């Protein structure tokens, strides 16, 4: 029984270690500057990671100190957390499966349309009050101003691998035919009817295309890209947690079987 309990404790120590990448993913989601103006996923991830840490710690203590209630708490709690993490992984996959960009003519970057994203993501930027707060946040960041320090020539800018937020918020849509002066200053549009955002462009540095639908789409594209990266870590951690949990269940069952045999032998002798 002691050996089995030590095995259970050692297995649950792996569970403690696996909580670290979950919590780390949540912290990374919260600290990414590209999506600092709209944060949705970080708290569910951090909470699941923290609960995983607590439950695995309970299993670790219960395994080494032969505390059956703690082990039962671990088995039930970890199963619930695995289910919750699996649901979160599936949810993230579903809401980020849409929203790929489309190439702009003679450009090295992609442009994005708001209607290409899932309804859940679109609702995060829908409504004048929500977007007013996000727009105010975006205009206070260095995402657009830093382009002026990086690109001075038009061709260099056109060939640049800009981020979705930069293509959607910092410049007018390519279809409008604006003339490049610098990355955040454009004049003389050729066709203001080519895109509904053509008339929304403003050379004021606190305005730019922050009121454009393309800016909302660019923000969601950056958010979806970030979530997809986070989801890879969560999927790997989920698989590892399932393996640890199954091994822990087997060790717990073997420990209970050993205990039953031990009591039977004591009663027999």
UniProtKB/TrEMBL annotation:
Q: Which UniProt keywords apply?
A: Membrane, Transmembrane, Transmembrane helix
Pfam families (UniProt xref): Tetraspanin
| Membrane topology type | Multi-pass membrane protein
Q: Identify one Gene Ontology CC term for this UniProt entry.
A: plasma membrane
**Chief location:** membrane
Q: Which chain regions cross the lipid bilayer? A: 6-31, 43-65, 71-95, 230-248
- Places the protein is found: Membrane
Q: Which InterPro entries match?
A: TET_plant, Tetraspanin/Peripherin
- GO process terms (BP): auxin-activated signaling pathway
Q: Does the keyword Membrane apply?
A: yes
Family assignment? Belongs to the tetraspanin (TM4SF) family.
What is the protein's name according to its record?
A: Protein TORNADO 2
Q: Which organism is it from?
A: Spinacia oleracea (Spinach)
